Amino acid sequence: MYRLSPQQEAILGKAREIKVKVIAPNAERVDSEGIFPKESIDALAMEGFMGLTIAPEYGGMGQGLRVACAVLDEIAQGCASTAMVYLMHLCGVAAYSSAPSKTGNYLRASAKGTHLSTLAWSEFGSRSHFWAPVSQEKRENGKVTVNAAKSFVTSAGHADGYVVTTQWSEAQNPLESTLYLVLRGDQGIRITGPWNALGLRGNMSAPMRMDNVAVGEERALTEPGKGLGPMLNVVLPVFNLGNAAISVGISETAVQATQRHITTSKFDYLGTTLADLPNERARLAQIRIETDKARAHLTCVIDAVEQPSPSTLLLVLESKAAAAETALLVTDIAMRACGGTGFTKGLGIERPFRDARAAAVMAPTTDVLHEFIGRALCGMEVLG
Ligand SMILES: Cc1cc2nc3c(=O)[nH]c(=O)nc-3n(C[C@H](O)[C@H](O)[C@H](O)COP(=O)(O)OP(=O)(O)OC[C@H]3O[C@@H](n4cnc5c(N)ncnc54)[C@H](O)[C@@H]3O)c2cc1C
User: Is residue 384 part of a domain?
Assistant: First the structure.
């Protein structure tokens, strides 16, 4: 459905191979123990996937959102935690790629598989409104320091590079932020709590503090106070479409598990299976349709990003909300279709059910996307 060229299909085929050999076999342990999916990320890194979207001049594969979404959909079918860690890396390198004169070394290291990136945007004081950080940089004697309480940072403590938002020292309002690159070894960064969540349990999306972290001009990824533009125009499309692809992959897992279960689970005394019940077949049909619809919508949005038009922005906003809600619906129906057996760990439906619940509350949340889209359709400023 992603309409890939033969070369792109080969890349997807490699991702599928890694999913089958490493990512899927590790997924249950990652989930049950709540551990970072190191083996899975290392396997992707070994095959150059950390450079999937990085320009060839920095050693990357130079692929766009079409291939990234196809790969994320595939990985999410094996382990949604791994897919989310990988997506946050792709978001981080999108920010690096907008400031290549400062980040060339990190782009090269990512392409070689030795640098993992992420975003540290959400703050306790601005919650899911990532575009309005409450932290503010300090400028003294030509030195810049960041002090921030970040509420959720995927790959906390595992990522090598953190793309951090903070208000510009001369900001007139919270929208005047700057993006900085903070590195794992920098003085003043620490993880302040555990990650123990309902789903995406391998993400390590833990809270972090940054106290007087020195970030020279060479670490600024945007002009002072001009972070909002790259946040919305460069990183948000990667996050929204990639997040949608993960929701589609989670839905696909639930559909396939349901299909397997209802076609093989027997009422011995009747000599029938669950699939002989019309309501069970209807449930399977409904979740197949919903998943195909979500994937088709995503590919339309990819087309719109590749061939921009006035409707592209709306479609980018739609993509994450549409797929997130689909994943909630599909995994809920799948759980009912698979009865008490689906409720247990063995069948492989309850993990996608839990993992699916993250997308709708990850910023921009479904509520906020509905508000943005509604405002745009009514001719209002989106960030009014
Ligand atoms: C698995 C996971 C991974 C994450 N990874 C990262 C990461 O790597 N980097 C990062 O920066 N952040 C990350 N986050 C944070 C995420 O993006 C959100 O900021 C966070 O989930 C918001 O949680 P909150 O409790 O602060 O929500 P709140 O902002 O308190 O929202 C509570 C409810 O209010 C609704 N709401 C809020 N504002 C509005 C509005 N204007 N209109 C209507 N309804 C509204 C929300 O939709 C939600 O239902 C992650 C979160 C999760 C769950």
Answer: no
In a domain, 240, yes or no: yes
Residues lining ligand 1, CB < 6 A?
A: 88, 118-122, 127-128, 130, 151-154, 200, 203, 205, 358, 361-363, 365, 367-368, 371
Q: Ligand 1 atom 27: the closest Cα is on which residue? A: 128
Flag whether 261 is in a domain.
yes
Cα dihedral 119→125→131→136 (10° resolution): -80
The residues of the chain scoring below 70 in pLDDT are: none
Tell me whether residue 383 is in a domain: no
Residue pair 177/166 in contact by the 8 Å Cβ criterion: yes
Nearest CA among 46, 47, 83 for reference residue 68: 83
Query: Around Cβ 211, how many Cβ atoms within 10 Å?
Result: 13
Distance 359 CA to ligand 1 centre (A): 9
Please identify, among 192, 225, 258, the residue that sits at the C-terminal boundary of a domain.
225
H/E element, 249: helix 236-264
- Please write the tens of the pLDDT for every residue from 251-266: 999 999 999 999 999 9
Write the single-letter amino acid at 200: L
Number of structural domains in the chain: 3
What amino acid is encoded at 167 in this protein? Answer: Q
**CA 361–ligand 1 middle distance (angstroms):** 5
Query: What is the Å distance from ligand 1's center to 267 Cα?
Result: 44
pLDDT tens per residue across span 179-229: 999 999 999 999 999 999 999 999 999 999 999 999 988 899 999 999 999
- The residue whose CA is least distant from atom 14 of ligand 1 is 152
User: Where in the sequence is the domain holding 15, given as residue range(s)?
Assistant: 6-115
Range 160-180 burial, b when 16+ CB lie within 10 A, else e: bbbbbbbbbbebeebbbbbbb
Q: What is the pLDDT of residue 141?
A: 87
Q: Are residues 251 and 298 in the same domain?
A: yes
Handedness of CA 143, 58, 51, 132 (dihedral sign): positive
Last residue of a domain, one of 46, 80, 115: 115
